[in-house]
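Q: Mind making up any chain with structure tokens?
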Amino acid sequence: MTDIPEQSRLTVAFLLVSYTPDAPAGMERATAALATGLHQLGHRAIILTAAEQPEPDPDIVRLQTLAASFPCDDDTLRRAIHQAGDRLHREITATFDARGVDIAVYVDALWGLGRVAVQHRARSVLATHVIGHDEDLAVALVSVEHVVAPSTTVLDQAREHGYDTDGWSVIPNGLLHDHPRPDEAARETLRRRAPIRVLGRLGPEKNIPALVNAARLLERPAEVVVADAGFETAPGAQGGEWSRCRHAAAHSPWVHLRSGGMSWAHVPAWLAEAAVVIVPSLRESFGLVALEAMSVGTPVVCYDVDHLPSLVGTGPEAGGVIVPRSRGEHALWKAAEDLPSDPVRYRHLSRAAYYRSRDFRPTTVAEWFVKAVR
């Protein structure tokens, strides 16, 4: 931990109602990474959530006035916020006072309670990981002092919705765990023998069922791990995605599919032991799984959508292969199978992937965040 003077030490509160450790969602993991980076710099960070926690943590505060069970959809959460009313405002304010909060980060206009940002001496920040619904975002924007987004993709999307993004800051998502990458000898073995791997939550934009369905002609083993998040588009939507995944996998003999996700600490090690990682998303405001794969030297295959080309790269220093969305899921599998067959190109992409990831260490991102909102 950096030794900074007590008077320069900040207390930052993150609000994310669905937050639990090891949740299979980018907002949760990015929040944990930024909180970790702040701790490592010598600041304090707490997280306010409405979700039940697996075990007590002094830096995680559970909101008692917001009666919500997870997973839930947007409309259900809005109703819970409305029913909590002023009691929720008072609870948040009392927590800020008790913890001496200097900066309050509302991690999303709805799920991060930006739409009910409280009046407090703490500086207020809205983290727009996704643009979401105007009924939430428009209210949140008039209540906060700073707005941050994980990529220019989000800024572009906001402008398309008619929002003025002058003054918004881009603060990328950070890496929560810095797992060692395999050395060159190990990476060479992985190139020749390791499976293709896919990791994602059961959301329609993650496109997992379609990817698995297109694996029927696959000739290399593939492992696909999926999990439920605390939010979904409609009640039971994630269950439907899982059923479609299972049906597709039943006709794809080379695909090993399992649900339940994995711990955040285990994710980089699992991605490190892949030959290639496919990120089949149709929308991706950042692309945290792609970054985690790159951080351990595993090349990424993904579509040319949203922020993924900027993150993975498209030139000589790219950390993977970008596939035109118009070519479909078969093209993702083909690129993932073809890449390991060229050892020279594979080694180049592996090295480039690792070095592209170095700018996203948690202390680096935390320093950018403090500079932007202090």
